[in-house]
Amino acid sequence: MTTLPPAQTERQPQNRTQRQGRLRRTVAALLLGSTVLTAPALAGWAASQAQQNATPPAVTMVQDAPGSFADLAAKVSPAVVNIAATQEAKAEPRAQRGQAVPGFPPGSPFEEFFRQFQDQMNRNGGPNGGPGGDQDDQDQGPRGKTGALGSGFIIDPAGYVVTNNHVIDGASEITVTLQDGTAMPAKLIGRDAKTDLALLKVKSDKPLPSVDWADSDKTHVGDWVMAVGNPFGLGGTVTKGIVSARGRDIHSGPYDDYFQLDAAINRGNSGGPTFDLSGHVIGINTAIYSPNGGSVGIGFAIPSNLAKEVVAQLKESGKVERGWLGVKIQEVTPDIADSVGLPSAKGALVADVTADSPAQRAGLHQGDVVLSYAGKPVNNLRDLTRNVAETKAGDSIDLKILRDGREKTVPVRIDRLSEQPQVASADTGNGSAEHEEVAPVKGLKLAPLDRAARKRLGIGEDVQGVVVTGLSSSVDVPIRPGDVIERVGDTEVKSPADVRHQVTEAEKAGQKALLMLINRQGNESFVALKLKA
């Protein structure tokens, strides 16, 4: 039991005595002073003081903190399994081992951490980690097979097991071990790299313990959660914590929408479940962020509502089909919002429309801002991407868009995705052009897109506009030398004078920013040019 220091234990009675003394002195001063209080008024004043000094009411809690997680752990742990995956290792130079980081793109905040961890474990000859907690056993000589350890959970008494794709990716053999030590070979039913999910199947003579999905949309930041898994290959381990944040985008795929948890999640927890206090799965532990190889209280879990739709498709057909709209989209920044007349930076800006796509057939245009999809608000790129992906091919939905400052509803019939739509490219362009204009336009040095400029920059005849040859040091706009400005506002431009005219007219109209369509190495996107501070 924790004992408070004497000064702290005595402070409360001293303060109460002081308050009582102040109350008596105040009443006496009021009675003796020039202001005379009647009995009812004095009674009302005393009641008011008593109410102020009273203990404030307790805050209503969304969840009651449990005295123990023991009953919950005993209830759900039998359905949580350990997964061992054997992969055929390819011979590779020693210097290159541990460099691959499956599941995370180059430059992600996890890449360097995993590389350092792998290098260290390779030097020590110990287990080697993968994204979100899978472990590999690797030697330092010629290699034949490697083993990955992760977690999973039984979602159906018939033996269907959910885990992460990166736990079993490339495996030639998969073994599932139950809490009682029973080991069974598992068959891969299907996997989905975009959401990092996989579904396995084991055969059993009797129904297996299983758990149910929760409705993750009802999970709040601050809710209690409990994670169960196989950290560092130690076997069933239980940790508890809260949901630290929702909707985290860790740049691991196009459908990122992670819960952030402070429950300890370590290597080997990948694919394991996170439970609410009812024992239902709210998420699948997938990734951690750590500078030291262990949990620092930042783990990420795939929400159950995203996972269960993918798992259902894998169970039914072994693959996942997604909807396709056929647009390249980009974020609406505050400057872009100002330039198109939006009160806040929400929505998804259409940077390009794919030929012969549902978007083109529905009449979507470059520069349209998608505000809602099938009645659901689109606050950012991920909202639109996920909603389109979850729509069945052939379904018709309504898009609410903003075009030329006016909202409009556009019906669209969604097709099946054959390849992943891409966000407007962020590739850079370099180069310079001749005949540079002497006076820059808002800090942009421009030149006509003539034959010499096309040859120097490798720009085809199909691209029309004005080439950016340089920027003044004061320019704060995502434009680079070599970009071609194709449109300013709603007007196509063919000369630096056209650009200057559109900027001047926008400034006269009192606009804070002006939307421009640029072409960078064949990829079109919109940028907002600030006109006023």
Automatic annotation (TrEMBL):
The keyword Transmembrane helix does not apply. SUPFAM superfamilies: PDZ domain-like (SSF50156), Trypsin-like serine proteases (SSF50494). It catalyses: Acts on substrates that are at least partially unfolded. The cleavage site P1 residue is normally between a pair of hydrophobic residues, such as Val-|-Val. NCBIfam families: degP_htrA_DO. SMART domains: PDZ (SM00228). Residues 1-43 form the signal peptide. InterPro entries: PDZ, PDZ_sf, Pept_S1C_Do, Peptidase_S1_PA, Peptidase_S1C. Residues 1-18 have a biased composition (Polar residues). PROSITE patterns: PDZ. Keywords: Hydrolase, Periplasm, Protease, Repeat, Serine protease, Signal, Stress response. Residues 1-23, 90-149 are annotated as: Disordered. It is found in: Periplasm. Belongs to the peptidase S1C family. The keyword Signal applies. Its EC number is 3.4.21.107. Its main location: periplasm. Residues 309-405 form the PDZ domain. This is Probable periplasmic serine endoprotease DegP-like.
